DNA sequence: ATGCACTCCTGAACGC
DNA sequence: TGCGTTCAGGAGTGCA
């Protein structure tokens, strides 16, 4: 899916078109995304204005007037497109507004939406157990030290655990570990504070750079105007198995291993 | 509590 | 060209 930078990119793209706009109607073309879509989404949204658009973890939050929030998760292949020129058989939800339409397109249908009361957002089942925002001041070396104190899981798995830190996915976890010089299999509890501080810095820099680049488009990610993100050109380890490491350039090749069913890319020389 | 394999679904890439 | 296999940015569930 879109990870944090991609979701942030989508939120930023939506704001100019959707903020303070009223939904004229909402068309649910397909009730079964990852989870069944409630018909309430159509009835509640219709006639309501969007008061704010925020990102929390990998969720898009559309705050509506009348104390409702629509949560949208893009899953692996979800897109929100403003007035797309062509239609797709995977256009599952159409939000009609004065100036056109916002289309939710999701070939793999791993995405989902949930409607809840804004005042009860913190108790929402998808948000109540979620970890801290990686770009917030709450993420510090000492915070991670405490968080990982009893964790013998590999650091890579910990970074992907949304209940600990919310928003990192496979790509940016790989990139941040590479930049910090930490081997992905290293146990969380064995990483000293200095390295964790380093990791905080690299997590934040890689996410910020990716947001600037409009996210990474491996296949499905699109900005709301349909354009590609281009941070994939800045990957230093992700997808580079068998290629020379950009940092040490000592003829050492980037390797790939599987952790928790996901590919991890790393440099055996630079990451210890 | 933790870790894992499995699952949902489609499409692209690859090998034969 | 066509078919079958494998893999992919996520995350909930059930089990050991």
Task: Write up this protein.
The protein has 272 residues and is an alpha+beta fold. 24% of the residues lie in helices and 21% in strands. It contains 6 helices and 10 strands, in the order αβαβββββββααααββ. The protein has helices at 4-18, 40-45, 141-147, 155-160, 170-180, 193-212, and strands spanning 25-28, 50-56, 59-64, 68-73, 79-82, 91-97, 100-105, 112-117, 255-259, 262-266. A 4-stranded antiparallel beta sheet has the order 1-6-7-5. Strands 2-3-4-8 form a 4-stranded antiparallel beta sheet. Strand 9 (255-259) and strand 10 (262-266) form a beta hairpin. Helix 1 (4-18) packs parallel to helix 6, helix 3 packs across helix 6 and helix 5 (170-180) packs across helix 6. It is globular. The two termini are 28 Å apart.
């Amino acid at each position: 899916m879109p990870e944090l930078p991609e979701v942030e990119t989508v939120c930023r793209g939506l704001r100019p078109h959707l903020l303070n706009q009223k939904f004229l109607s909402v068309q649910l073309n397909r009730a079964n995304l990852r989870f069944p879509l409630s018909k309430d989404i159509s009835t509640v949204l219709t006639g309501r204005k969007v008061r704010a658009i925020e990102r929390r973890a990998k969720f898009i939050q559309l705050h509506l007037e009348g104390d409702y929030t629509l949560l949208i998760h893009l899953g692996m292949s979800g897109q929100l497109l403003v007035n797309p020129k062509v239609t797709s058989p995977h256009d599952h939800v159409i939000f009609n507004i004065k100036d056109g339409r916002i289309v939710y397109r999701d070939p793999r249908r791993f995405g989902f939406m949930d409607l809840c009361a804004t005042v009860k957002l913190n108790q929402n089942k998808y948000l109540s157990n979620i970890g801290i925002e990686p770009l917030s001041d709450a993420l510090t070396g000492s915070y991670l030290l405490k968080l990982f104190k009893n964790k013998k899981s590999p650091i890579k798995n910990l970074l992907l655990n949304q209940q600990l830190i919310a928003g990192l996915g496979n790509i940016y976890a790989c990139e941040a570990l590479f930049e910090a010089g930490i081997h992905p299999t290293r146990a969380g509890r064995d990483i000293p504070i200095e390295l964790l501080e380093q990791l905080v810095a690299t997590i934040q820099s890689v996410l910020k750079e990716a947001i600037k680049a409009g996210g990474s488009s491996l296949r499905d990610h699109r900005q709301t105007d349909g354009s590609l993100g281009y941070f994939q050109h800045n990957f230093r380890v992700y997808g580079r198995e068998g290629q020379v490491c950009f940092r040490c350039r000592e003829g050492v090749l980037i390797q790939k291993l599987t952790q928790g069913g996901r590919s991890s890319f790393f440099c055996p020389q630079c990451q210890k």
